[in-house]
Amino acid sequence: MYAYIDGELMTIKEDHIVIDVSGIGYEIFSPNPYRFQDKINERVKVYTYFYVREDTQMMYGFKEEEEKELFKKLLNVSGIGPKNALSIVGQTSAHDFAMAIDREDDAYLTKFPGVGKKTARQMVLDLKGKVTEWMNAQSSQTLTESVTQATSHHIYYDEAVEALKSLGYSAREINGISNQLKALEAKSTDDVIKKGLQLLMR
């Protein structure tokens, strides 16, 4: 229904952004809203998917069109809902995901939150041969490198969270900045801790 929305980025929250188009504010849920941080109060184009069910209507938005297409394909997998699909899109590229499906790489697929071996198998069964258009796309990382970096980032994040707790910050306070910390391209645990302290002391 809505291929994309082009307007002024007004607000960034933990799970969504708000774009103003001619005085109408569109609330758009995104894999990682803070990726749009550099566009705040500027015009931005977001590729959107309007999700409609009997009890809900939600708009999902993505920085790249490939992300939107991956999200749509994930929704067609038995057992995958919007929340899981959004989480997966936020943690991989279409190219790397397609390579994992083609290789039937359960170890890669089960790294995503909420995805166990059964769901990983279902993704392979439902998507094998349907995501080949992304497999030849240029990528700055191999699948192995991507997995290694993702694993390292999770370790940095987990260690930083424990450090912040030891400094007296509550789980609720830390959860309030978790998306910003996860979006950080950190090279060490210290990087994540320093960013966390900056955010918590605002």
List keywords for this structure.
3 domains; OB fold (Dihydrolipoamide Acetyltransferase, E2P); alpha+beta; globular; 202 residues
Word description of this protein:
Belongs to the RuvA family. Pfam families: HHH_5, RuvA_C, RuvA_N. It comes from Tenuibacillus multivorans. By secondary structure, this protein is an alpha+beta fold. It has 3 domains: 4-62, OB fold (Dihydrolipoamide Acetyltransferase, E2P); 69-134, DNA polymerase, domain 1 (Orthogonal Bundle), CATH 1.10.150; 143-197. The chain contains 9 helices and 5 strands, in the order βββββααααααααα. A 5-stranded antiparallel sheet has the order 3-2-1-4-5, covered by helices on one side. Strand 1 (4-12) and strand 2 (16-21) form a beta hairpin. Helix 1 (65-75) runs antiparallel to helix 2 (82-89) and helix 6 crosses helix 9 (189-200). The protein is globular and about 50 Å long.
Topology (SSEs and partners):
Layout: E1 4-12, E2 16-21, E3 24-29, E4 43-53, E5 56-62, H1 65-75, H2 82-89, H3 94-103, H4 106-109, H5 117-127, H6 143-166, H7 171-175, H8 178-183, H9 189-200
Antiparallel strand pairs: 1-2, 1-4, 2-3, 4-5
Helix pairs in contact: 1-2, 6-9
CATH topology of the largest domain: DNA polymerase, domain 1
- The N- to C-terminal Cα distance equals 40 Å
**Spans where pLDDT lies below 50 across 5 or more residues:** 138-144
* Count of folded domains: 3
CATH-derived architecture of the largest domain: Orthogonal Bundle
Give the rounded overall mean pLDDT.
Answer: 86
Radius of gyration: 18 Å
CATH class of the largest domain: Mainly Alpha
Q: Give the topology string: H per helix, E per strand.
A: EEEEEHHHHHHHHH
Instruction: Say how many strands there are.
Output: 5
Q: Based on helices, strands and strand pairing, what is the structural class? A: alpha+beta
Relative helix content: 40-55%
Specify the CATH homologous superfamily of the largest domain: 5' to 3' exonuclease, C-terminal subdomain
Query: Main sheet: which strands, in order across?
Result: 3-2-1-4-5
